[in-house]
Amino acid sequence: MSAVHEIPTEILETLSPRNRSCIERLRRHQPEEVDFSNYPPGKLAAVLVMLFEKAGELRVLLTTRSKSLRTHPGQVALPGGRVDATDADVFETAYREAHEEVGLPRDYPHIHTICTLRPYISSAKLLVTPVVALLADISILNSFVPSPGEVDRIFDHPLEAILDPSLASKENLAPKGSADWPYEDELYNHSDIDLPWLGNSTYRMHRFRSTAFAIKGLTSDILIATAEIAYEKSPTYERYAPGQLRTFAPILRILEAEYGVQHAVSGTSTPTPKVEVGVPSGLANAVMSAQR
Fold first, then answer.
1. What span, in angstroms and rounded, lies between the C-alpha atoms of 108 and 12?
2. What are the distances in angstroms from CA 128 to CA 36, 120, 196, 226?
3. What is the separation of C-alpha 4 from the centre of its chain, rounded to a whole number of angstroms?
4. Residue environment code for 101-127, b if the CB has 16+ CB neighbours within 10 A, otherwise e
5. CA distance 133 to 54
6. Which of 254, 11, 23, 18 is nearest to 127 (CA)?
7. Is 21 helix (H, G, I), strand (E, B) or coil?
8. How far apart are CA 253 and CA 45, in angstroms?
9. Cα atoms found within 13 Å of the Cα of residue 139, Cβ hemisphere only
10. What predicted TM-score, i.e. pTM, was given to this entire model?
11. 95: exposed, middle or buried (C-beta count within 10 Å: 0-12, 13-18, 19+)?
């Protein structure tokens, strides 16, 4: 069982009753435990899901990746990266990466860990652990600066709009038909991708219109899971495609075949889908993981 992280009562009392309930649900969340102690150390990563209250709503900090990067240039991401050999754990990785990418001070006293989610599998075969945290002093946001060569833009998005995209209509969204939202749909769309290599299953790619590039892929799936736990409700859209896998076992088998290692999965958790898919031509391009 994962540790329940304590958040000072005086911090929780600054939140609206609804937002405080959201944070408490996340704090009590027990992710499915995955033993990746034998997984290649260079294939471990973490991201920071930084939540904060602004104008009465919970928002999440996001970035757009530098267009000069070789992988996923210009796409929306959560601050994060690979675990360094000097990192004590995934918490240090997530906070260190946030420091490097956006300028969150190291050991900042006004950010509080809430929980972790079960690791996701990225298209680069990384095991990515989301670390969810609450930023109590939002004045620090004004001092954040994108790291040159890594981040082009820092922005935020209402967390609940990930479950109900209509809530994003009040945002200063990227223009329809632009490079950031090249779709006819107003706020959200999805497409289903067949994955014959993965038991003839199907994956649903969700895309959310934002003030920057579309929120999609691994980032959108982590945020869907976070929002489902926080608000204790399902999305207004169909979460899964017909025939979409909802267990971790198929991915586990692929990883075992790939690396020849054994992973133990145990424990129970709130149903939290975990998916990332790119081009459906193999593990390096498409990975799906969800819990029934």
1. 17
2. 11, 5, 24, 14
3. 20
4. bbebeeebeebbbbbbbbbbbbbbbbb
5. 15
6. 254
7. helix
8. 20
9. 2
10. 0.86
11. buried
What pLDDT does residue 144 have?
Answer: 97
Question: CA-based diameter of the chain, in Å?
Answer: 52
Residue 23 reports pLDDT greater than 60: yes
User: Distance between CA atoms of 58 and 52, rounded to whole angstroms?
Assistant: 6
Q: What are 270's two structure tokens? A: 């709130």
Smallest CA-to-CA distance from 75 within 290, 276, 282, 272 is with: 276
Burial 163-179 (b: 16+ CB within 10 A, else e): bbbebbeebebbeeeee
Q: Is 36 helix (H, G, I), strand (E, B) or coil?
A: coil
Q: What is the residue whose two structure tokens read 């294939």?
A: 43
Average pLDDT over residues 48-57: 97
CA distance 135 to 56: 14
Nearest CA to 83 out of 126, 37, 132 is that of 126
Q: Considering only CA atoms, which of 225, 196, 213, 195 is closest in space to residue 290?
A: 225
